[in-house]
What we know:
CATH superfamily: (Glycosyl)asparaginase
Oligomer: single chain
CATH class: Alpha Beta
Strand content: 15-25%
Strand order of the largest sheet: 6-5-4-8-7-3-13-14
CATH topology: Glutamine Phosphoribosylpyrophosphate, subunit 1, domain 1
Order of helices and strands: HEEEHHEEHEHHEEEEHHHEEEEE
Distance between the termini: 41 Å
Number of helices: 9
CATH architecture: 4-Layer Sandwich
Helix content: 25-40%
Number of strands: 15
Bound molecules: aspartic acid
Shape: globular
Amino acid sequence: MSKALNRRKFLKKAAGVGLTFPFLGKFPEIIIPRRKAASKLPVLLCSRSEEWGKKVLNPAWDTLQHTGSILDAVEKGANVVELDPEDSSVGYGGLPNEEGVVQLDASIMYGPNHNCGSVAALENIKTPASVARLVMERTDHIHLVGTGALRFAKMHGFKEENLLTEKARIRWLKWKENLSDKDDWFPPADGKYKKKQERTTGTINVLGIDDEGNIAGITTTSGLSWKIPGRIGDSPIIGAGLYVDNEVGAAGATGRGEEVIRTCGSFYVVERMRSGLSPQAACEAICQRIIDINGGPENVDFNDKFVAVNKNGEVGCASIRGSKNKKPMVAYINKDGFKVVEGSYLIEAPVKK
Ligand code: ASP
């Protein structure tokens, strides 16, 4: 069924028109009755700790109170990080690819109708999550990439802007000039740029449930730093960096995207919750799965982190690697206020970013 049909049906349903759905292939479409408000709802969460958690979740919460829209709320939260040049892993200020060009990935998903949209390798637009939302709401497609995504954003009035901040440019230059002593780029003789620039990850997942049980989520990122131009990570891939299902909950991923893609990471978390695991146990299960498919902890020199929420508003968080001083965190806000929860990690190891 196309997104347009899906949406039309959903709108009719939301308008209270009694609909019966045709059988599609073998299985009937499942209609999920709206739930009564549960005590932990509404809830908004993000894959960050105290400082960013508050910066993101407070305005997202205010938006939810004012508009009542869980999509507006998660978009607002994502935009906060996207627009902040101090964050080097999302939106404006994100670290660039190997050619010094910032390319952004983002996805959005809405639980009541499984609608979703995403953009990938998008250049020059500060808020890719908002463009992803327009792909979801104003097209019958799901993924738009590169120049097509940029053209689409511009047609919707987004302004093209330089996303490479001075801070990010200098980090790129340090990386480039220290990459090899056999190429034509070398650092200044005074040793100023000597420090090796590690490849970094970051990203943010913002997930939320309104008081009627409608779930939405966003994942937005500048992706792996120094990536090959055109590389797309897990963040814009539905089921990898993000998955939302009103019947169960939502999950999002950060970290080494290739591993998340080949395990359909966020989808896996949601499906494990569907089969009865808590959000915490489901996040641990995907981390274990990634370790297993790599042949054991000795082969895992990267990190991935998952956050999840079930339809009752319970949250969980786990990473593959961590240490006592570097535990994965998830921040959430509900009627009782703002809280940061420490998750678990499976391999005790200093986290190599
Ligand atoms: N998952 C992102 C990617 O692989 C990176 C990150 O989380 O920082 O593009």
